[in-house]
Write a structure and sequence with these properties.
Helix content: over 70%
Shape: globular
Largest sheet: none
Strand content: under 5%
Distance between the termini: 45 Å
Radius of gyration: 22 Å
């Protein structure tokens, strides 16, 4: 399990580091202004659908069904064809009516901003088609407990965007955002190519070939029906976080210029520990727990849950302290150059602190929701996610009035805490308290105090130095 976690985490680390490099370069070239907001808004739309349909929802519903299937190759190809037809049709619809879909994102934007953003929305949306192919192939690789390729593949997207930024640095902002949009599609094609190579290396090409060859001779309707019953609740459960982010972006369009960018850049920092730690651990854990539960081995499932819980808690705890106490030096180091000013740093640091408050609840909620998905309790997870979304939205509207973009981030953290509490309640408070009744609880408290003092002292020194 730890080998899988390490390979997945290492791949994500490389991907996120190159992503930070991309964002650092983008802030230097574009800054935090109208054109950066336009590009990020256009890229937000395919990302919303990507995370809802192509990533978490698909893997969490496909993996248990695939493990239980007696006709794995035919089942896999049948599901792929159905999804691909839907996503391609949706992409054509967005291409034909880009202004309408862009307005759904930023309803407060005027005609001029919408008209500038709409063509970019149409271009960026085709990334969804490519990333679904990546997700499908990546899920097959995960079943074989091969995680590195999928974790690493986003590097190609980041490299493509970095190359575009370098080539068009001295161009006008409109040309730069168009270059970035086309580079996203090039990066997506490279991701697909990387996965096809890994599929071939892992000997999984025969699954795709066999599934296509025998798709009309094998009956998998019952398995497809089971998949659908899991997928719809999974979409609801996974879409709530993306819908909340989507609404936050839209609400930020009502705030001062640059607010959309403050949320984006702060969230990029937040996503670094969340992805490297929480996503890496839960992604690597999911196939193991799903197989153990499918085989009736609850003891093995709990053993892996115990190890993952404390590894996750320790690493996220250090990340939270560092993210809150060192927020301004972190943003200064990564972004404050070129068009990104000291005031932009302070505004983004405020948002980052509010995001980091929710890192542990979000991470642990992700871990325990994986346990629910492995038990085929997708509907329960969906109900929990809906409740947390409602709480998030209520606090977003309230807190943005006085705190601006930072209030939107804090509302997200509050929603994450609600999701964590309700998920634990569903899994069982006894299981959770059994996890806490160990010496690791004392280690966690002492470690938190030690790292807290160290980070506070370091922050005082750095603030005096940089300001």
């Amino acid at each position: 399990m730890f080998k899988s976690i390490f390979s997945n985490s290492f791949g994500i680390l490389i991907s996120r580091v190159t992503g930070l490099g991309r964002d650092i370069l983008m802030t230097s070239v574009l800054g935090a202004n109208v054109w950066s907001d336009i590009f990020l808004m256009a890229f937000k739309f395919p990302n919303l659908f990507r995370r809802i349909f192509a990533e978490g929802s698909f893997t969490q519903s496909f993996m248990p069904s695939y493990i239980a299937s007696n006709q794995k190759s035919v089942f896999a190809v049948a599901i792929f064809i159905r999804f691909m037809v839907f996503i391609v049709a949706l992409s054509f619809l967005v291409t034909l009516f880009p202004g309408f879909f862009t307005k759904m994102l930023a309803w407060d934007w005027g005609h001029d901003l919408i008209s500038k953003t709409a063509p970019l929305t149409a271009i960026n949306f085709w990334y969804l088609d490519l990333i679904f192919i990546v997700t499908f192939l990546g899920t097959l690789l995960q079943h074989k407990e091969h995680f590195f390729t999928t974790a690493f593949s986003t590097v190609w997207l980041n490299i493509a965007m970095i190359v575009a930024l370098i080539l068009f640095t001295n161009s006008d902002p409109q040309t730069i955002v168009y270059a970035l949009s086309f580079s996203i599609l090039i990066g997506g094609l490279l991701q697909v190519a990387t996965h096809l190579y890994a599929i071939r290396q892992q000997g999984l090409m025969k699954i795709l070939v066999g599934g296509w060859k025998y798709r009309h001779t094998k009956d998998v309707k019952v398995e497809e029906s089971k998949f659908k019953s899991l997928f719809i609740p999974s979409v609801i459960g996974n879409s709530t976080a993306q819908i909340a982010s989507f609404i936050d972006t839209s609400l930020a369009s009502f705030l001062v210029a640059g607010s959309v960018s403050y949320l984006f850049y702060a969230n990029r920092i937040f996503q670094l520990p969340f992805a490297i730690i929480a996503l890496a651990i839960t992604t690597a854990l999911f196939p193991t727990i799903a197989k153990a539960i499918n085989n009736g081995n609850d003891a093995l499932a709990y053993k892996n849950l115990f190890k993952s819980f404390w590894l996750l808690s320790a690493l996220l705890g250090v990340s939270v302290l560092g993210g809150i106490l060192l927020s301004e030096p972190i943003i200064w180091l990564l972004f404050e150059r070129g068009a990104f000013t000291a005031q932009d740093t302070r505004n983004t640091a405020d948002v980052l602190m509010m995001y980091m408050v929710g890192l542990i609840p979000f991470g642990l909620a992700k871990l325990f929701s994986m346990y629910l998905y492995a038990q085929h309790k997708h509907l329960k997870a969906a109900k929990i996610a809906i409740i947390s979304l409602v709480i998030n939205l209520i606090f977003s509207v309230i807190l943005m009035q006085s705190m601006g973009a930072a209030g939107l981030a804090l509302a997200g953290s509050i929603g994450g805490a609600v999701q964590f509490i309700l998920t634990i309640k569903e899994v069982g408070w006894k299981i959770f308290f059994d996890l806490l009744k160990t010496r690791f609880s004392l280690y966690f408290i002492l470690g938190t105090l030690g790292f807290g003092v160290a980070f506070y002292t370091l922050n005082q020194f750095l603030i005096q130095w940089i300001r």
